[in-house]
Specification:
Order of helices and strands: HHHHHHHHHHHHHHH
Distance between the termini: 26 Å
Strand content: under 5%
Structural class: mainly alpha
Radius of gyration: 20 Å
Largest sheet: none
Number of helices: 15
Shape: globular
Helix content: over 70%
Length: about 280
Amino acid sequence: MELIHSLSRNRRLLGDFVVRDLRARYVGSSMGFFWSVVYPFLNLVIYMFVFGLMLGVRFGDQVPKEQVALWMLAGITVWAAFGETVSRSTNCLVENQNLIQKVVFPSEILPAFLCVSSLINMLIGTLIVLLGVGAFMYFPNMLGMAETSERPLSLGLSLLSLPLLWAAQALFTLGLGYLFSALNLFMRDVYHLVGVFVTIWMFATPIFYPPELFLDPLHKDRMEFAWILSVNPMHWLISCYREVLIFGAWPDWFALGKFVLVGALLFYLSSRFFMAQKPSFPDLL
């Protein structure tokens, strides 16, 4: 496949762009790279306040607040990397038009380096989730964690499946990145539409509320929207991450298989579209 061969040939340039992007994130800030640790916690506090206190979203009487916090943090961490990559990739060709117009530049590395950079940044949030799970597992009394829980926190061999989840996430994210970045050259409104689309998609994904919220027979009005979960690839992926990171279980292989299949098809079609339109990029810019 032409795009994959190009990424392989230009892997050194791709690595340089990733390093430059990671450095640029925190240049000039007094806290530097520590912001990648603080930012997920700030999001967690905000969303727990909004959904837990103001909106009163319940996760069940047998679910400790500490477990809810880790459950939400895992979802926030994965979504932040995904949403950031899709949003930045959409406008990456426009932002780098000086490179594309003036030199023979492999524009296909632009969405790729943004995806890799976000995944590397996501690893820090993932590590925080794992540290939180370990702390509540081994020091529950010291941290004041409730003993009752429908599912106990756990860490296990299922962590070995994380590289597979990362690869699946990259495949799906890159598919959207290549599609939207190319479409944005034909219609610049795509960048703004994608921003709205990502926000709607985020709230349609059970990140800040339990998926059971749509499955409660006492609330038939909510059950009408249960179909959204069954067709939401990011719900499949985030559920798999939570199983591995929080409960020490292996991911739902059926859900992961669906996600990989959708991601592979999306990547194949989007990359072919991107490479087919690549010769016209300088003129469109």
